[in-house]
Amino acid sequence: MQKQHPFFCMEYYDTYEFVSVIHDLVENGFESSWYYDGFEDFIEQHISSVFRPFQKFSILHQFISFVSYELFKEEVDDSVLDIIVRDSDCVLWVNKALKIYKIPHMDFREWLAKQSLSIASLEHESVILDYYAYLYEKGPLIDLLEIYSNEAFYILFLNRHFLYQFNKQISLRTTKVRFSDLTQNSKHLFRKDGILRRVNIPMWARKAVFYRDRGIRSHCQKDISGLINIHNAKHFDHIIPLACGGLNDVSNLQLLCETCNLQKKDNEIQASKTYEKWY
Predict the structure, then answer these.
(1) What is the C-alpha separation between 255 and 260, in angstroms, rounded?
(2) Mean pLDDT, consecutive 10-residue segments, the chain of 279 residues?
(3) Residue pair 229/188 in contact by the 8 Å Cβ criterion
(4) DSSP 27-77
(5) 235: part of which helix (H) or strand (E)?
(6) Counts of helices then strands in the chain (DSSP H, E)
(7) Gap between the Cα atoms of 3 and 231, Å rounded
(8) Under 8 Å between Cβ of 226 and 215
(9) Other CB atoms within 10 Å distance of the CB of residue 91
(10) Dihedral sign, Cα of residue 52, residue 56, residue 60, residue 64
C-alpha cells in the first residue's frame, strides 16, 4: 500500500461553515429538516465500514463527508436555479470550490451542453442535482468531499467536547445493533449485542492522540509526555467505553494517566474543556 504523505494543503474555503453545521448537528442529535434521525441514516448507509476498527479515514471523516454532501444538495433550491438562469456570470458554488481546490471537472454549463440542454430551458432544480450526481459518479465531487473531510477533521479533532458528543451519538445507535442481524463479514467485530471487541490501538492513532493532547492528561493536566518527568505511563482510553457502545476509532480516544484510567474503568467521563494556551 502506498504511504500517505504527512502534509496536505488547506484552503479553508467555507470549511468553517461545514464545521459549524456539523458541530450543531452533533450537539442536537442530528435532527434537521433533511432527516428525522441523521445518525441512523449515516450508520445505515455506512454499515459496511462504520464498525471497522481504526481506519485512517475515520468514522468522523466519513460522517463529515456524509453531512457535507447533504449540505451540497440542500443548497440547491429554486432560488439558486433562478439566479443561474438570470445571471450568465453566475457560477455554482460547487464549481467555485472545485476550481479553488484545483480538481479537474466539467462545469455546469458545459455539462448542460453535453445533455443538449440550455440554461434558458431549465425549469426545475433537479437538473442541478443530476449534475451533482454526475460529479459524484465521475469522481470530482468525491475528491472534494475528501478534502473537506480532512479540513473539517483537522479542526474538530482538537475539540474534545465535540468528540465526546459525536461518539455519544454514535454509541446510542451502536448499542441497538443485534448480533443476530449482522452479516458474517461484521459479526467478528462484535463481542455481543451492541458491544464491539477490543482491538490493539495502532501506533499512528496513539501518536495522533498524544500530539493532539500535547502529552498532557486533559482531565487532571498531568504531564505524562516523559520529556520533563519520569512518571509517564500513558493510557490511551476510549472516550465512550466499548461497554457503552463506543467505537474503535481515533476520534474516540483520549490520553489518560494511569490513576485516572484505573478510576474510570468502564464508566464515561465528560471530556475536559481545559486546554493549554499556545503561549
Answers:
(1) 10
(2) 68 92 84 59 85 95 92 75 77 92 94 85 82 95 96 95 94 89 87 93 93 72 57 75 95 76 58 79
(3) no
(4) HTTS--SS-S-HHHHHHHHTTTTTTSS--SS-HHHHHHHHHHHHHHHHT-S
(5) strand 235-238
(6) 12, 4
(7) 34
(8) yes
(9) 13
(10) negative
CA angle in degrees (0–180, nearest 5) for 228-230-231: 115
The C-alpha cell at 239 is: 472516550
- Grid cell in block for residue 2: 502506498
**In the chain, what is the greatest distance between 2 CA atoms, to the nearest angstrom?**
73
Do 26 and 162 meet the contact criterion of CB atoms below 8 Å apart?
Answer: yes
Amino acid letter, 130: D
> Which grid cell is 130?
443530476
Pairing verdict, β 195-196 and 235-238: unpaired
**DSSP 8-state symbol, 88:** T
> What global pTM score does this model have?
0.87
Sign of CA dihedral 177, 56, 163, 209: positive
Cα 99 from Cα 106, distance rounded (Å): 10
